[in-house]
Amino acid sequence: MAHRSPSPSPAPVDSIDLLAPSLCLNPDAIADLAPVQPSEHNLLPATFPTLSWSEQSSLHHNVSLGEKRLCYRHRPDLRSKRAADEFQLEELQQDIKLLPSQDQQIISHIWSLFGSAPASHRQLVLSGLLTQCCVPQLSFLSNHLQPLLRIDFLTILPPEISLRILSYLDATSLCHAAQVCKSWRRLADDDVVWHRMCEQHIGLKCTKCGWGLPLLEKKKVRAKRQEEVAQSQDRPLQIDTSPSSHPPSPSPSISPSSPSFPSRRRSASSDLETDSRSAKRARHDSRSPSPSFDTSDYPAPLFQSPVPPVKPEGTTKRRWKEIYSERLIVERNWRKRNYRVKQFRGHTDGVMCLQFDDSFLITGSYDNSVKVWNIETGECLRTLTGHALCVRALHFDEAKLITGSMDRTLKIWNYHTGQCIRTLQGHTDGVVTLDFDSRILASGSVDATIKIWNFATGQCSTLKGHNDLVNKVQIYKKDFLFSTSDDTTVKFWDIASRTCLQTFTGHVGRVQCLQTSGEALISILANRRHGKFAALEPASQDSNNAVVSRARATSPAYESSSSDSETRATRSIVVTGGLDNTLKIWDAETGACLNTLFGHEEGVWSLAFDKLRIVSGSLDKTIKVWDTESGECLYTLSGPEGPVTCVGLGDTKVVGGSADGSVFLWDYGARM
């Protein structure tokens, strides 16, 4: 009998052949299907008929070998990864060795015939075998076919499609996928997948899982501010100073008497008075550390911004998975209330204002001083003195600190050295609030007026409209301004035309605090019973419609229905707090009240918020943490022994100042 040699090994496979059909004629399959190959020791007996396929079938088979693409199970680049198949073949070899030699030869011959058969013949053989199988044998086939039909789809698909599939998984599933094998880990840890994950969660709430992660981008924000400061001279704010529309009025004189908070002030005209002729102008005198703001025919800039520092070179790029993990730890700390409390003591009287970044904490107090703290170590770096009465407001950036006091002045400081650069005078009563950007400074006073100071030109103009002291001002989108007052109203101003565009009414007590979302859009679950009853009181509908439309056009809103009683709105918002013990969330463009937050037992004195949380400080000696989207009170922070007069919010920190002179910091960024 002639010796039947094994089939030759296949030629190298072209890359196109790696796209596989469900059935293949690769000669390597014969090796898998025939664990016992014919040899000199296991030749078939003479009585066993020698079978072979016809010449036509063999020719068709040989042609198909050169044209047929490889299936998933027989791709050469994947054979080494199928450890399970190799283990099953070893078990099969052991079982065959237990059979008689002749039975082994017959089984080996049958497998060899099947392995060399064309595709159509294989299907006929299998169909015939299935018709002869009993139920136990069919059950055996079903159990063994299911795992064999599983494929590593991430390996055989193009990387772009695999990454797209993984981008639909949540973070937990991605971590599980990374534990399957090295190839899956390489794909599951790819920056493309985790960048999409960060886009869905960082700085906003994911619509699928409801989780949102903090930004943690203070350094990037500071770098952007430095660029804005450097370019601030390119776009000076043009404020209308035409005497025909707004005649100038005499500059208010400064009274030596001590300022106090009146319960009610006389009604002020809504017309704006121009102080270009009579307001005092600042002039820098190098011989004096804090020159007064004096008049001048050629007003000088209030503050010269230093050149921004050069960014360091060679910074390493972090992977997006590492960025996501870092923020996830912080968010879990927020949710589980894992924080470390730090206390700053040094003021001898109540702390009325504060601000912090990732390096400094600056506080102002009734003891007439301003303290600069190292926020990490708690060390008081320096104390700024110069105000004659208590410091009620402060705001700082990378270059300067501006403070407002009840002595009716504002002071510009270099808080890195403690030097007072300039003193601004113009209000006729104590300064309660201030805000500034790269171009202008806005200040609100007990005299019920708001003054706008231009850094570039040194000019000052006045906004009038409130009937009582102004508690809070904030610049909005560079050209507009919000203000709150003891007259229970919130006003929306156009700075360039110096007119009040809208008045938001709804609080029944004095409105003490306010913050806007600025350019950011915030997702809010607005209660529909609030959305229809926001009272709008335009200063002049005919003249202001164009300005209001321009303001609204810069902030598109997106709405989606979530339930019968609530609708999700993504828009610019304003959050206010008042002595009526409530916080209100307003649509910044329409003035509609989107939600009212109840929970404090006494008046709300201060607040701060971001896209995920609102924190509010109250006279009831507590700080409450709220969910920005739903308005739900998450929990209450306690610690101060006196009323909480000021709060600050960061990605990982909450800071609160109290009337007892203490400052508390809750740090959520530390690992527990």
Describe this structure in words.
- With 672 residues, the protein is an alpha+beta fold.
- Among the domains are: 159-219 and 320-336, Monooxygenase (Up-down Bundle); 340-524 and 569-667, YVTN repeat-like/Quinoprotein amine dehydrogenase (Methylamine Dehydrogenase, Chain H), CATH 2.130.10.10.
- It contains 16 helices and 32 strands.
- It has a five-stranded antiparallel sheet. Strands 1-32-31-30 form a four-stranded antiparallel sheet, with no helix packed on it. Strands 2-3-4-5 form a four-stranded antiparallel sheet, with no helix packed on it.
- Helix 12 (191-201) runs parallel beside helix 14.
- The radius of gyration is 38 Å and the shape is elongated.
- The N and C termini lie far apart (80 Å).
- Mean pLDDT is 75; it is low at 1-38, 241-298, 528-543, 553-558 and 560-565.
Reconstruct the topology from this structure.
Elements: H1 28-33, H2 55-67, H3 76-79, H4 83-97, H5 101-115, H6 119-132, H7 135-148, H8 153-156, H9 159-166, H10 171-177, H11 182-188, H12 191-201, H13 218-230, H14 320-336, E1 340-344, E2 351-356, E3 360-365, E4 369-374, E5 380-385, E6 391-396, E7 401-405, E8 409-414, E9 419-425, E10 431-436, E11 440-445, E12 449-454, E13 460-464, E14 470-476, E15 480-485, E16 489-494, E17 499-505, E18 511-516, E19 522-527, H15 528-531, E20 535-536, H16 541-553, E21 558-561, E22 566-571, E23 573-578, E24 582-587, E25 593-598, E26 604-609, E27 613-618, E28 622-627, E29 633-638, E30 644-649, E31 653-658, E32 663-667
Antiparallel strand pairs: 1-32, 2-3, 3-4, 4-5, 6-7, 7-8, 8-9, 10-11, 11-12, 12-13, 14-15, 15-16, 16-17, 17-20, 18-23, 19-22, 21-22, 23-24, 24-25, 26-27, 27-28, 28-29, 30-31, 31-32
Helix pairs in contact: 12-14
